[in-house]
Amino acid sequence: MLRITLKLPDGTPDALRFSIALRMGVEADAFTLFPRKRSIDAREKPVYVWTADLDFASEKLEKALLKKHGKLLSPAPAETPSVFPAVKRSPSRRPIVVGFGPAGIFCALMLARSGLKPIVLERGGSMEERVAKVDSFFEHGILDEATNLQFGEGGAGAFSDGKLNTLVKDKSFRGYYILEQFVKAGAPEEILWLNKPHIGTDLLRNVITNLRNEIVSLGGEVRFGVQVDGLLCENGAVAGVRTRHGEVIRSDTVVLAIGHSARDTFRMLHETDIAMEKKPFSVGVRIEHPQSLIDKSQYGNAVGFPPADYKLVCHTSAGRVVYTFCMCPGGIVVAAASDKDGVVTNGMSYHARDGVNANSALLCEIHPEDVPGGLFSGMEFQVALEQLAFRIGGGAHRAPAQTVGDFLNGVPSHAFGSVVPTYTRGAVPSDLREVLPDYVCDALAEALPYFGKKIRGFDAPDAVMTAVESRSTSPVRIVRNESMQSCSLRGLYPIGEGAGYAGGIISAAIDGLKCAEVIVGEGRA
After folding, report:
1. Which residue from 267, 342, 381, 515 has the least number of CB within 10 angstroms?
2. In CATH, what number is assigned to the domain containing residue 16?
3. Are 21 and 178 in contact (CB under 8 A)?
């Protein structure tokens, strides 16, 4: 197996195959092509940068090509893809998985494949029900506090962009293994080699449903509309859960994949003396620009490339970090509230990413010392901002928004310019300094011109900022030990973003996979 890296003006695998054949002097069908990575180098004239492995039927031919084209080719590195342990056992007590976002899905999937027939309890609705209720909220403002953009099958990431890039070092290839499972469930094969893979909200819904169907086909259960409001504890170990409807389900293995917005569950855990701690989090806004402006800044006059994205970080003079997060090319800003009197923003793109605007979270880091008080002071800070945004937006989940020009000039917005806000419940021209703390606004005001030097037009006067982006991560962490179990209760496994151990779809799914490996390896359940 040989590895090659090429720069090409065309981003299709077919173009890669024919270019390799031409350069190697072989027929296009003389080798099996395994694309490994495709990125874009936009430093000068934009080009696609491909890394691929080539498998020739003849070892002799490979050696000859390696000798002739040593500057282009190298032996492909030996890689050992992650393979989940092929353990099969009949459970004495079926494991319980609380929550059905990425962490819960992949933990339950792997437990089901091991024969453990997990019981999944999700407070929100199924994907079909969830789509209907989210659409109703967007169009009519009818919010279901149990089934919305935060709660329901797929978790919060199901209504975003389906972005699958992660900063997690993937030496064990768990991330690649997860991408393979997404492809098997119907995701585009390109996610296996795109530098920043994404599925898109529209395609991700079907993928999640297919993963659920596999869990069920293997004897697992996925129960929707079931909220856990108590833990059963015996002799320092978990013994099961109690649901809001009074049902008791016994098990010595309970996985908590509750997501970052399960505030009532965090309080229940605290009352049960489960160890938790405060952690840093972030708040800010969703910022929107014309996608054409981002493309122009990243690609110049080149055409034919995918909608451009960006990732920016600024260390301010006051020592705060401002950064962009969850950037959605060609997307919309969505109403992501889970409380009737709060406003929360998030971003969403479909697979085509063909919307007029680009949007991203523009966030300021918040430290525990910024919000003094008890364990839940960060959570209470989030709630206060969301409720304030609701009031300033005038109710009905309309969101306060301000142009960048007005924000930097310190004056309220009374109208929007060329950038039309896409927020799904309607944006109201406002003064964001009435919503966000001064130290957050000062940090954003310092970062915007700095980012404008990185992405030309980022601080353009007509760009729009919509508040409040408050759910990027959890402000608390459920403390666990090296075996991924709660330090307070044996058999309780806090995982994923809500527990404080992940920050996106892939990192959460990896955490769920690791948890299943531990449970299967220990022979629990």
Report:
1. 267
2. 3.30.70.2700
3. no
